[in-house]
């Protein structure tokens, strides 16, 4: 199964980011394209892929982010619009779009969304409060007052299944769609390894102790800038004591039940959507991984 938001085809062209002449050349390239974003939502073209305009569509005072070059060397940009307020949440309709657009487009959109969102939230220096300026072709900000440099954030999140023999532990958060259960998840905290975060989050949310954490796959999740790190761990026992602040319910599900649900048959839970890494994680586990 293909991981959602992965498979981007752009060369991110890092060596060009600090090369002012090269960057000016990319911006002046008449083939240059601008991702059409409004309040971080993508516009689609008639084929269902991402819609692109020319740089003439960029806001006069906008800050350009070089997303990368396609296989022909054509530069692709996003623009941070100074007139737009910080976006909180996301449109429900966005997920219907993500179900349909080509995988590479979803990956390019994820990168653009995360970095544009970061710029909107980091207009001021975290060290001294002065308005900051972009550098590195939009992949950082510098402070003209104290010279601090700030880079786009990626927030690691562990997402995990605890297994005990032929069963796996799944949880349900408050407000989720009816019947939906998924892998447990939580942010990695400062001073923690991935393995320690998996064990802590699983114990906090369900009371289940785990060990022997193994890494399966990762996925960018651009709401706002997470990196989902999918793992499977071995549970010591099956006693569940949920934290009601984090979960509404947690259940043990058999491999046969997971296989049935992933095959679209009725089962004890509704599967997470295919663009979410929890779907891939369940698929790996159901296959015996
Ligand atoms: Zn500063």
Any descriptors?
single chain; alpha+beta; 6-stranded mixed beta sheet; 7 helices
Q: What does this protein look like?
A:
The chain is an alpha+beta fold. Helices cover 24% and strands 27% of the residues. The chain contains seven helices and 15 strands. It has helices at residues 14-17, 20-28, 92-98, 103-121, 194-206, 255-262, 277-286, and strands spanning 33-35, 37-38, 41-42, 52-54, 63-69, 75-80, 133-134, 141-142, 149-150, 155-164, 167-172, 184-187, 210-221, 226-235, 249-254. Strands 10, 11, 12, 13, 14 and 15 form a six-stranded mixed β-sheet that branches. Strands 4-1-6-5 form a four-stranded mixed β-sheet, with helices on one face. α6 packs across α7. The longest helix is centred in the middle third of the chain and has 19 residues, at 103-121. The chain is globular, with a radius of gyration of 21 Å. The mean pLDDT is 95.
């Amino acid at each position: 199964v293909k991981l959602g938001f992965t498979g981007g085809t752009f060369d991110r062209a890092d060596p060009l980011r600090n090369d002012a002449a090269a960057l000016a050349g990319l911006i002046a390239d008449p083939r240059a394209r601008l991702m059409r974003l409004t309040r971080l939502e993508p516009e689609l073209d008639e084929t269902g892929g991402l819609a692109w305009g020319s740089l003439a569509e960029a806001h006069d005072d906008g800050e350009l982010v070089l997303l990368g070059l396609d296989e022909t060397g054509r530069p692709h940009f996003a623009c941070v619009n100074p007139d737009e307020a910080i976006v909180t949440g996301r449109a429900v309709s966005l997920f219907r779009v993500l179900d349909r657009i080509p995988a590479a487009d979803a990956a390019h959109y994820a990168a653009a969304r995360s970095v544009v969102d970061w710029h909107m939230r980091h207009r001021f220096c975290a060290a001294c409060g002065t308005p900051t300026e972009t550098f590195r072709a939009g992949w950082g900000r510098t402070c003209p007052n104290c010279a601090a440099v700030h880079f786009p954030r990626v927030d690691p999140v562990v997402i995990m299944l605890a297994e005990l023999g032929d069963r796996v532990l799944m949880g349900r958060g408050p407000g989720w769609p009816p019947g939906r259960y998924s892998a447990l998840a939580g942010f990695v905290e400062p001073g923690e390894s991935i393995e320690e975060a998996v064990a802590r989050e699983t114990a906090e949310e369900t009371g289940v102790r785990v060990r022997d954490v193994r890494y399966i796959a990762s996925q960018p999740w651009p709401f706002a800038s997470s990196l989902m790190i999918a793992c499977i761990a071995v549970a010591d026992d099956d006693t569940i004591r949920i934290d009601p602040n984090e979960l509404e319910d947690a259940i043990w599900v058999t491999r046969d039940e997971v296989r049935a649900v992933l095959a679209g048959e009725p089962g004890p839970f509704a599967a997470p959507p295919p663009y979410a890494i929890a779907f891939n994680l369940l698929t790996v586990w159901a296959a015996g991984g």
